[in-house]
Amino acid sequence: MPQLHFDENAAPAVTELADGTKVYRTCAAGFGCHNLGCGLKVYVKDDELVKVEGDPDHPISKGRLCVRCLTAKEYFYHKDRLLHPMKRAHKDRGLDKWERITWDEAFDLIVQKYHETVEKYGINSVSCWNGTGREASKYHFQMSNDVFGTTTAVHPNSGWSCLVPRMACMLWTMGSSYIEADNSIGLVGRYDNPAWTCPNYMLVWGRDPLRSNPDGLFGHSIVEMMRRGMKLVVVDPRVNWLATRAEVHLQLRPGTDGALALGLLNVVIEEDLYDHAFVEQWTYGFDELAERVKGYPVEKVAQICEVDPDDIRAAARCLAHGPSTLSMGLAVDQNPNCLQIGHALLSLFAILGDMDVPGGCFMGLPPTFAGMAENAPAEAGEGPLEGLALYGNLGVQPLGHDRFPALSAIVNTTHPDATLDTLETAVPFPIKFAYIFAHNPISCMVPQPKRWMEAIRKIDFVCVADVFMSPTAMACADLVLPVDTFLEHDGYVSNSNASQPGQFGAIKKVLSNRGESRSDLEIMLELHRRLYPESTNAKFSSIENYIDSEIAGVRDLNAHYADLQEHVIGQYEIEYRKYEKGLLRGDGQPGFNTPTGRIELYSTVLQNLGDDPLPYYLEPKFSAVSRPDLAHDYPLVLTTGARRFTSFHSENRQIGTLREIHRWPTMEIHPETAEKLGIAEGTWVWVENPWGKAKLVAHLTPIVKENTVSCDHGWWLPEEDPEELYGVITHNIGSLIPHEENGPLGFGTHYKSMPCKVYRAD
Ligand SMILES: Nc1nc2c(c(=O)[nH]1)N[C@H]1C(S)=C(S)[C@@H](COP(=O)(O)OP(=O)(O)OC[C@H]3O[C@@H](n4cnc5c(=O)[nH]c(N)nc54)[C@H](O)[C@@H]3O)O[C@H]1N2
Ligand SMILES: Nc1nc2c(c(=O)[nH]1)N[C@H]1C(S)=C(S)[C@@H](COP(=O)(O)OP(=O)(O)OC[C@H]3O[C@@H](n4cnc5c(=O)[nH]c(N)nc54)[C@H](O)[C@@H]3O)O[C@H]1N2
Ligand SMILES: [Mo]
């Protein structure tokens, strides 16, 4: 099991300069980020934030920082930060009529509304909402299940189209909680550690890690590996920075990923490029897979995907020069074909013999973290779920799991789309209470934002906890709670809770709180105290106890929170080739943690869940191929949400420097297409389809193909009128994405493949 390694040669946690300035080392979980944990040096003088710099002693980020941390001062001292709890009369939702109240009054209100709801409607009418994996997301299930005691934990990303589909493939077909490109992240000395091998090739699929630093892969590690000789194959409809440096760039038609993945498998099998010994010993269903991929010959796939057939062959041949590794991203999830794309890509690297070898695809240990169905700790809650395991065994099925039972096997939130149906119809029960934290559904997460906004407004009591007044809070909340930044509280960061190798680090309070802001963890512990005054649960008694018990619960790491505070960051290693050593399975036997003990190219789990056990291609439901009737009026293909350095979803829109770099909600369009439509650089345009429209600024660029436009997501204009909701509906590209158009098991949707037309807004 992993052990934490602290670097004894690193700078001390705090040093003092001659002028009295203190320099604190800490790990970042913001300003607009996952709780990724980049190393930070924070300069503080007389309780004033002077500046932040990258921490060169941090073994993973190694002194690098992105523009969002480099503009920390603007964020920290921003005039729009929420500083006090505020409430508003129910009838005034949407109006800027807030009344400042005390924290005591705020907690009293929450507790009162909570009890009223439970008494009148039952516990599951209480809902607890959370956005993407920020620091606060560590507390989503604790807050929902342990504090509120409800199964109505909501994450309303249509089709759960973020990470969970990929995780489902990893867990169900490979028996690994998470599989990531091996970038030496857990090894002391990193790339110089002899245990590591530099991959020969990395397949970067629908992911832009330099901008997104996604889920445990620090993007710049790709550049470091390129410097050591790694080459790239990129699958992306846009020519991003990595694509310009790739051996092969497959610039596919958005949404056709499933066909391309099967085409690559076809070449590897037909040209006999696979690892026979590995296939023989460790995989299940190779013959069936080989038979299936015969249906995806290169010429046919090339036509579907609008790429050159020779490029598909070239890509497959490159990857066969292993070790090769896979970095697959959000474009896999944001597609109703997601499970099959993920399954096909993982199968590709499995038959190439690249699973869990140095320089290959690193297999995560079985999961221990909140929300995962398998192997989860049975935490005794003190609410109505007392004594039940938190996940997979809730006793009550979360909302929508009757229609989409596969979801129960992977995550215990409600089904995102079914939640909207329930809000609108009160079937099977009404939702009357909502606690929304670190989440801005109206600006960002949901498709059909206006419809969701109206549905959320039907909830009797809505509390939003945020750093800023978000459009969701302005539109829907009765109570807002001011949350602080990671410089104002203690906390911790971790890499997939030690499923993957990597880091455990300390978030340290280095500045006094602005106003009366508090951390999500403090709010959670206080709510717990007030809802369970008799509780003797030591874990919830203090921040230190809470974090200590969280760390202690993770794979027997030899650390306490005090150690993290002292050393700032601990690195841990996990062995390669775990399947040979019995480290993946509960019974300690060699093999994989699947029903057959092998990597299931033919998935018995998918079969039992009612889907095809083999990967297949689903043509996007609204494409010109599927719906030629739509293609006449909506001839362009819309992909959305390609990440920018200057924002994290809807966050950072009020930061002046970042808005100078990227001023407006932007649509990328090919110059020739723009010319035909009379659209010049910088013109405001409407992007429209039968589901809705959004107003953006055109940026003419040849990085997109002539038939494709790529639009920003998560926009609102904080400088505009709050009572017009900061233009959030006007500029929201989510309006063009349909509700409940998920894959067969309820996963994925069309965030990256919809038809549209574009015209000038003037
Ligand atoms: N700066 C910043 N970083 C972030 C975020 C943020 O908002 N800002 N969000 C965070 C979150 S929650 C997530 S989930 C991750 C996501 O981060 P990533 O997984 O990196 O995903 P994206 O940036 O959405 O898209 C990556 C690439 O997919 C391409 N693409 C578009 N359509 C398709 C398609 O149909 N097929 C294929 N193969 N590619 C396509 C885009 O052109 C883009 O280059 O980023 C996280 N990191
Ligand atoms: N069209 C389209 N839509 C998309 C996507 C896309 O690619 N295309 N991507 C989707 C994806 S992958 C995701 S994950 C979702 C993300 O959707 P969300 O997670 O809902 O989006 P955010 O805008 O990040 O909302 C987070 C809110 O939390 C606040 N906040 C920041 N830090 C803290 C904190 O520490 N505590 C608290 N309480 N609040 C905090 C921020 O100010 C912000 O208002 O969006 C999805 N929406
Ligand atoms: Mo996400």
Question: What's this model, at a glance?
Answer:
The chain is α/β, with parallel strands linked by helices.
Q: Spatial order of the strands in the main sheet?
A: 7-6-19-18-17-8-9
Roughly what fraction of the amino acids lie in strands?
15-25%
Distance between the termini: 62 Å
Q: What's the number of helices?
A: 27
Give the names of the bound compounds: ligand MGD, molybdenum atom
Question: Can you tell me about this structure?
Answer:
The protein is of the alpha/beta class and 762 residues long. The protein is 28% helix and 17% strand. It has 27 helices and 29 strands. It has a 7-stranded mixed β-sheet. Strands 24-28-25-27-26-29 form a 6-stranded mixed beta barrel. A 4-stranded antiparallel β-sheet has the order 1-22-21-20. A hairpin with a 5-residue loop joins strand 2 (14-16) and strand 3 (22-27). Helix 5 packs across helix 15 (338-351). It is globular. It starts with a strand and ends with a strand. The model is unreliable at 369-394 (pLDDT under 50). Residues 30, 131-132, 134-136, 157, 162, 330, 437-441, 443-445, 465-468, 470, 483, 520, 640-641, 648-651, 713-714, 733-734, 737, 751 line the site of one ligand MGD.
Task: Output the keywords.
binds ligand MGD; 762 residues; globular; 29 strands; alpha/beta
